[in-house]
Every structure is written in C-alpha cells, then in structure tokens.
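Hey all, quick one. A colleague (J.T.) asked me to put the glutathione job into the tracker so the inputs and the structure tokens live in one place instead of scattered across chat threads. No bug as far as I know, just bookkeeping. Sequence used:
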Amino acid sequence: MKLIISTTSPYSRKCRVMVRELGLAGQVEEVEAHPFDDDPDLLSANPLGRVPCLMMDDGQALTESALIADYIAEQAGDPWPRDWNDRRLEALGNGLLDLTVMRRVEMVRDEGIRSDFWIGRRERGILRALDELEAGMGEVDNPMAQGPLTMAVALSYLDFRYPESHWRENRPQLQALAEAWSARPSFQATRPPADG
Ligand SMILES: N[C@@H](CCC(=O)N[C@@H](CS)C(=O)NCC(=O)O)C(=O)O
C-alpha cells in the first residue's frame, strides 16, 4: 500500500500514527506530496487534490482520513475498541481539525482580504468543540482508539498552528490525553517539522 501524505497535515498524521501503532509500517510506503504544488501523482491518485490518500494494493485509491483510518484498522484485524462513542468523538475531533485548518487558511490570507468574521466564527467553534471533547473524555476508558487519537492529533495541531490558544486551561482531561499520546514513539516519529 502507498500512503500519500504531507508532513504538516494533521489528517495525514492520524493515518501515519495508526500505521505505526497497528504494526503495518512494513506494508505501507509513505510518499510525500505537497497538495498546494498540484503534484501530478497526487492529482492522478486523488481528484480532490488532498492528502492523505491511500493507494490500495488493487490500485484503487481511498480519500478521507477517517475512511483510510478504518481501512488501516481493518487490515490490522480491528484491534482497537470501536463503538458509537468512539465514532462520535472521532467526528468531533475531525471537526475540530477542520475548524483549525480553516482558521489558519483565513489567517494566512493577505491582510486586506482576511476576514475577522470567519476567524472569529472558527475560533468560537474551536472553543465549543474543545469543551465538548473535554466532557466526552469522561466516557473514554482507553485512549488507544480512533476517537481519542483524532482528538490528540487535533490538540497537537492547535499547538503547532495556534500556540497562543491556551486550550489546556480548565481542560485537564484533554491535557492528559495530549500528554499520553505525545509520549508515544508513533507520535514523536510523525511530529510536523518546526519550519513547516
Ligand atoms: N476531510 C479530509 C481533509 C483533508 C485535507 O483537507 N487535507 C489538506 C492538508 S491538511 C489538503 O490536502 N489541502 C489541500 C486543498 O484543500 O486543496 C480528510 O479528512 O482527509
């Protein structure tokens, strides 16, 4: 299998962590592509032009990190707990990622066309999602699952792109989750480059 990724993409990171945690590193070749360079290999694999994209051994491509994560888990024999609470947390974690990425996209636009309306809207959504995830962690027994992993990737991405956010304040469960995941070799091996 070939996994097309970018090293700064949190969606890619989630899949890369799963490959390592579930013992599939020997079966998955990681290939780097920068989506905004319109890399022809990426565009021919994924018409959406986004990473991650998984080329399966039959030549078909899977897009969307959540779908790729499900496929990776299945290839490994589905060793992680997976119930509707885990799926719920995964969806919320993905939404937190989406809002954080969209906020960044707005922030890096030229000053004259940057929209305070959209930045504020994304920031309020980020704060509400963090509070919901803090509450949701109370029902999590095992942080080794797709939902908590997605949350940990999103929290790490907040630190990477939005270091002034103070998301740790009054959110001890999220802080503990982030610490648990960042100590793992899979997380350390997929840390985004400091200059990314
Ligand atoms: N919902 C998608 C989002 C993927 C995504 O937006 N990836 C970004 C990199 S972080 C990308 O490739 N952006 C390029 C673009 O939007 O044109 C997923 O979960 O895989």
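Adding what we noticed when we looked at it: The mean pLDDT is 96. The chain has two domains: 2-75, 84-184.
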